[in-house]
Amino acid sequence: AQKITQTQPGMFVQEKEAVTLDCTYDTSDPSYGLFWYKQPSSGEMIFLIYQGSYDQQNATEGRYSLNFQKARKSANLVISASQLGDSAMYFCAMREGSGTYKYIFGTGTRLKVLA
Amino acid sequence: DSGVTQTPKHLITATGQRVTLRCSPRSGDLSVYWYQQSLDQGLQFLIQYYNGEERAKGNILERFSAQQFPDLHSELNLSSLELGDSALYFCASSAQGAGGINTEAFFGQGTRLTVV
Lengths: 115, 116
Fold this sequence. Notes:
Shape of chain A: globular
Number of strands of chain A: 12
Low-confidence stretches of chain B: none
Shape of chain B: globular
Largest sheet of chain B: 7 strands, mixed
Low-confidence stretches of chain A: none
Number of strands of chain B: 11
Oligomer: heterodimer
Radius of gyration of chain B: 14 Å
Helix content of chain A: under 10%
Largest interface: A-B, 28 and 29 residues
Strand content of chain B: over 45%
Distance between the termini of chain A: 41 Å
Order of helices and strands of chain B: EEEEEEEEEEE
Mean pLDDT of chain A: 94
Largest sheet of chain A: 6 strands, mixed
Radius of gyration of chain A: 14 Å
Mean pLDDT of chain B: 91
Number of helices of chain A: 0
C-alpha cells in the first residue's frame, strides 16, 4: 500500500536561510507523482511543486526545489531564501499511476521562519 | 482561486445531528476527493468519486456517506455527529486517467465543522 512519511513535526529556520523538509514514500507502482502543498494558518491548501517518478531532473519552482532520490524513495522539499510568509504547514503527497489515482498525504511539517 | 467551491465555509451543529457539505469541482475535472483534517493533523482521505461513480474509499466512517451527481458536484453527508467529527473537511478535484499523475489536486477552501 502507498504511504507517505514526514518525520519532522516542526522546523525552525532563520529568515533568508534555506531549509529542507523531509518526505519519504512507499509504493510498488513504478509510475507515480509526488507533490508538495503549503497550508498557511488561513487553512487553504496551496500547490507548490510536482515531481514525476520518471522525471530525470529535480523539479524547481522559483524558491522551491524538490530533491528527488528515487532509490531512497525520498522527495525532500528545499525552500531557499526563507521568508516570513513561508511559515506554514507543509504536506507531501503521492499519487499512484494506476488503480484509483487518489492522493495520499503525509502528516505534515510545521515550518516557522524566524526574523 | 483554485476553481473548487465548497459550501458552507463554517458550520456549527449539535451532537446527533446530520449535515451536508457541498463541493463543486473545477470545470472539466471528473474526479472529486474528500479529506478530513482534524486539529493540527494531516489530511485523512475519506472517499473519491470519478464521473459519478465511487472510485476509492479511505477511512470513512459508516455514519458518513457521499455522492457525485451528474453535474459533477459532490456532497458529503455526515450523520449522528459526534464531538470528534469536528474538523476541516476539504474537497479537491483533479484530472483523471493514465496521463493524469502529473496533475495536482486543486482544493476548495474547506468547510470547518464544529460539533457542540
